[in-house]
Amino acid sequence: MKSLTRRMALAGGLALSLAALPAAAQTVLKVRPFGDLRTLDPMTTSDYMVRNHAYMVYDTLFAQDAKGLIKPQMVENFTTSPDGLTWTFVLRDGLKFHDNTSVTSTDVVASLKRWGERDGLGQQLMAHTASLAATDPKTVTLVLKDRWGLVLDALGKPSSMLPVIMPARIAATPSNQNITDATGSGPFMLVKEQWSPGSKIVYAKAPTYQPRKEAPDGLSGGKVANVDRVEWQIMPDAQTALNALQASEIDIFEEMPPDMIPLVKGNAKITVSKLAALQGVFRMNQSQPPFNNPKLRQAILRLVDQELAVRAYVDDKALYTVCPSFYMCDSPYFTDAAWPKPDVAAAKKLIAESGYKGEKIVVLDATETALSPQTLVVSQLMRDAGLNVDYQAMDWGTLSSRRTSKNPVDQGGWSTFASGPAAPDMTEPVGHLALRSNCENSWFGWPCDEAIEKLRAEFTMAPDLDTRKAIARKIQERAVETVPYVPVGQFWLVRGQQASLQGLLSPGVPVYWNVSKNH
């Protein structure tokens, strides 16, 4: 007994002496993101701040590499039956959630079913699904009703409304309600008690995460957290962010305005690089007057001069392009079919034909984002054409909350806002964030057109690229009539960063695995 007491005393003394030692210094990556994080649910919103959060805390079954190919991520291997109807997915060994519970096929099925209720590609996949089941703890079996060629494209889609894997208990949350528990399957975990909206979001390296052994490649491969913490520091004012970058108070300035690039050109401690290609989107609320009238939407399409709009943000021709299409200019589905040239006289004629009677048009503008200058240009073009514009400035977090409202403008609603979806969300008709016209299930603005939806469904069943291109062209021709939104040009975001950072990836989405800081 005395021996046991002595050992316990020695152990206690050792614990006290270890506690007295200085803690190992943590490596902290400090980032100024473009906006603020207001919700944690990547399946209920296309907000890119939530998407970026999702890449921190979750992993996916598949992911897109730098060449756009879909590669296994949480999946170890998969097979497809000869008739193309049965898909079997086997999970990797050692997958854990942040609460140290194992990732199982039950979690995968629950996550995919919830995602399939909200995302465009997910909705298409579920429409072609006969059954989705957990056949053993590591195996998921998907049986299709018919041969559908976009299964891997859907499960490995990048950018917004990701098919992330979360615990089944959390995925049980109805898809019209936001989750509040960020327990994830990815390389970092949210330090929720240090999350201060409007100020700071903190992530810690997840000790439970087992990365793939391959080198990182685009959004696929090994997601190795080389820093202990990542802090997103909210700075709505770009000059404040630039000052912080120059003073080494932050490591990364996401979405640095192009006019600030010359200010850091002579600073050897700072480098600037392209971050992502975006399409500027001027979105109109079709659930409320006056943009429930297609002629008024057609008028805005003819009012917008992309060259004028995009140059309000960037004047470097290497960083922008005029793109007369609903698809990205480098998309295999690009077409300028039926695209109208800017024509103020034609726009005014359409305004008159629409019966517009001076109704207030509430324009929401997130002033810290890259789309704010384009918003100001389009707002002025609308005023010049005789429209009653009520311009309202705010931050992105407020805008992303406000745009969910379907109320009339005098009850907190809205008429238009501008956003900048990334290239992966705007490349082809099915995953296209802003072309979706499936009414209540479409993106904010809620366009509703049966013809476009029928063509999108046909696209998924097309047997070859030429047939898909022909369908994509028909969708564009119809969209010129219905105008689900107005493209205001294509441009590239740039990122300012400390030159000492190593391994910073540029897959078109800001991700923070693989990056290291020199001490």
From TrEMBL:
Matches recorded under SUPFAM superfamilies: Periplasmic binding protein-like II
Domain Solute-binding protein family: 70-417
The keyword Signal appears for this protein: yes
Descriptive protein name: Peptide/nickel transport system substrate-binding protein
Matches recorded under InterPro entries: Peptide/Ni-bd, SBP_5, SBP_5_dom
Signal peptide, first to last residue: 1-25
Any single Pfam family the record assigns to this protein: SBP_bac_5
Superkingdom of the source species: Bacteria
Keywords, alphabetical: Signal
Subcellular localization: Periplasm
Family: Belongs to the bacterial solute-binding protein 5 family.
